[in-house]
UniProtKB/TrEMBL annotation:
GO terms, biological process: protoporphyrinogen IX biosynthetic process
Keywords assigned by UniProt, alphabetized: Acyltransferase, Heme biosynthesis, Pyridoxal phosphate, Transferase
Associated pathway: Porphyrin-containing compound metabolism; protoporphyrin-IX biosynthesis; 5-aminolevulinate from glycine: step 1/1
Highest taxon in the source lineage: Bacteria
The protein, known as: 5-aminolevulinate synthase
Amino acid sequence: MNYQNLFDKAIDRLHAEGRYRVFIDILRNKGAYPNARCLAGHNGPKPITVWCSNDYLGMGQHPKVVAAMEEALHDVGAGSGGTRNIGGNTHYHIELEAELADLHGKGGALLFTSGYVSNDATLSTLAKVLPGCIIYSDELNHASMIAGIRNAGCEKRVWRHNDLAHLEELLAADDEDAPKLIAFESVYSMDGDVAPIAAICDLADKYNALTYCDEVHAVGMYGARGGGITERDGVADRVTIIEGTLGKAFGVMGGYIAADRRIVDVIRSYAPGFIFTTSLSPVLVAGVLASVKHLKASSEERDAQQAHAAMLKTLMADAGLPVMHSETHIVPLMVGDPIKAKKISDILLAEYGVYVQPINYPTVPRGTERLRFTPGPFHDEAMMRELTAALAEIWDRMELRAAQAA
């Protein structure tokens, strides 16, 4: 068996399909987001502007967050000492869980090392403690949710994206006495559309199902206190479990769930993804704690971000660029070809100092490859006009307008 040859073929397939991923060598400039330095392939660091970060509000650079992390580092040191079972509950963890439970109006919350882990651990554990559970999953759910459902080993039904009629058809066809869980996201990050949460909860009530809402692209971003779409739409109390991340709008790292205390205790007690992994560093937790507290009280960052996203969409549309419809802060620009998407990204970085990563399969379906822009509160109008002019020039250079019109 020639293992090396098999590995080479696997990588060659990605190159042939134009979806081999290249990770940029980058350092962000503290206090000057979205400015950064690109280190690879240049004679010294090259100044660039970041347009695709999930640090949507720039909170990873916020003085309160940085100061809180520095204070924690000098107070308790770098690491947590192991799992929470072994190292104990660092008080920062207890404080943050209380803040997150309050943010969503729930009885409790539980921290994980990432949003991926929180989805995987929670979904897989829930189904195992509910004998005969059936999970109903939106077809565009994140890979971490799909992994959790797969690891649960239970019956699953995949419903067409945001299609309530199809969801009800599936619910009605199953045993009315079987435990049921409807899993969906609030904001779908590749298209920027939103789930009809209230209507999903109506179906959950009708068919006696639990609900699980992934709010990772919405927490910090929507609602008067940053509680997400569930807060904005006034339905947080109707959702059984709200899951979120601490690495996007909150700007640091980690994931969590917020739910009834009993459910939180079950996940804490049964989920291997929580029990057997080192807990988040208290330094990280201290930073998140400062971020959550700030965004509960301040809408300035959210308002500026929404205004800038709307402006960029308008500028792109006025320039004749194929900006996709999005009702949220996500600004997707359709390309439809992985090789062209990568080439556009490369030209932007090399010639214009603009960093945006191409989004290819399997993140999006084949033929819908795109560039995904996430303008934040610190991307000003001049930056957006320069970006739009650069994209228009590249679209003309590569003769993409005629190809996309055909």
